[in-house]
Amino acid sequence: MLTTATRHPVSDIDPFSDAFLTDPYPFHEELREAGPVVRLERYGIWTMARHEQVSAALADWQTFSSGAGVGIDDFRKGRPWRPKSLLLEVDPPLHTRTRTVMNRVLAAPALRGLRETFGAEAAKLADRLVARRRFDAIADLADAYPLQVFPDAVGLRPDGRENLLPYGNMLFNSFGPRNALFRASEAACKPALEWIFESCARERLAPQGFGAAIWAAYDRGEIEESEAHILVRALLTAGLDTTVNGLGSAILAFATHPDQWQILLDDTSLLKVAFDEVLRWESPVQTFFRTTTQPVDIEGIEIPQDEKVLLFLSSANRDPRRWEEPEKFDVRRRPTGHVALGNGIHVCVGQMVARLEAEMMLGALAERVKRIEIVGEPKRKLNNTLRSLATLPVEVTPL
């Protein structure tokens, strides 16, 4: 791990290998124990895996900039292959303008209006799944529920919604290198791209919904026409992928920790905290990059200016320096301070939507299900950035 010719830890770990993505936790521990900053020679990048450094870097946009892209590519060195995210990959003052619009679109009053609809859809889906007893918790629940309620909230047309997940898979793969995972997801996504771009146009959106609210901001002169289109597209991932993977991880957590499901059944006031514990325990978004704007000293190790830094959100969330028994899933834990949804000005803009969806779906299950058991081999869906499941066969016992 350590190289004597340098004053910093150096590692040959490949964070985008199949072995790492399948079971990242032993690698996380190795990186955390190596030091507060580690140089990954394979890609010529720096990385931080401890909670203290990751949380601080996420909060310090002036030093650890998002403007060069939150993936491995430096958007300042050549033409970006895709438009920048106007939420994740810009810094103030542009970020302040676009984020202000999105904060208003996704404000509490708008979400309060969705509680009844989200709750009703969750109840209907839970009734169907309990009646079946056995189902795939990914395809039939974690994918199905967000793909029903969130596109409705955005104002997308009913046809073609199956394109959303391949698009998100490709986008999050693109934050890593151009490896086999990215190439396969890019090929699978090509048929979906035309539908995605068309669906963000004003005339294709319902007159009410998050998408229409973004276009209304254009009417008021708060954003440009091209920005409105990009913001609608950004919303399709900001409010979907975290929920899909978070729900899948929640079912996995409760199926493998039946005592925690019983605790939740006994006290459903823990619903919101329980989902945050899921996010900490199995972070849906594993990593994001930042780029240094100046030389920065991290506990005696200097990272030069204009260097890519890979931040391990998932490792930070299991750092024993921050959490007691971090590998333990505990719904009574107060996971305040986890960075699964980021930190600072770039914290996930769709987090309140994700939390509402999780609260409604897990709440509907808690009203109907006594026990969740895994009845087949779960399979991982590898992604350069996301922690995902492909399948999770379960059986539920009704209350």
Taking the sheet with the most strands, its summary is: 6 strands, mixed
Radius of gyration, in angstroms, nearest whole number: 21 Å
Helical amount = 40-55%
- Name of the CATH architecture: Orthogonal Bundle
Strand runs, count? 13
- CATH level 3 topology: Cytochrome p450
Q: Ends: how far apart?
A: 52 Å
CATH superfamily: Cytochrome P450
Task: Please identify the structural class as seen in this structure.
Answer: alpha+beta
List keywords for this structure.
6-stranded mixed sheet, 13% strand, Cytochrome p450, alpha+beta
Structure description:
The chain is of the alpha+beta class and 399 residues long. The protein has a single domain (11-398), classed as Orthogonal Bundle (Cytochrome p450). Helices cover 46% and strands 13% of the residues. Strands 1-2-3-9-6-4 form a 6-stranded mixed beta sheet, sandwiched between helices. A hairpin with a 4-residue loop joins strand 2 and strand 3. The mean pLDDT is 94.
SSE layout and pairings?
Blueprint: E1 10-11, H1 18-22, H2 25-34, E2 38-40, E3 45-48, H3 51-59, E4 64-65, H4 94-105, H5 108-112, H6 115-132, E5 134-136, H7 138-142, H8 144-154, H9 164-173, H10 180-199, H11 210-219, H12 225-238, H13 241-256, H14 258-266, H15 271-281, E6 287-292, E7 296-298, E8 301-303, E9 308-312, H16 313-316, H17 351-366, E10 369-374, E11 379-382, E12 387-391, E13 393-398
Parallel strand pairs: 1-2, 3-9
Antiparallel strand pairs: 2-3, 4-6, 5-13, 6-9, 7-8, 10-13, 11-12
Helix pairs in contact: 6-17, 9-10, 11-12, 13-14, 13-17
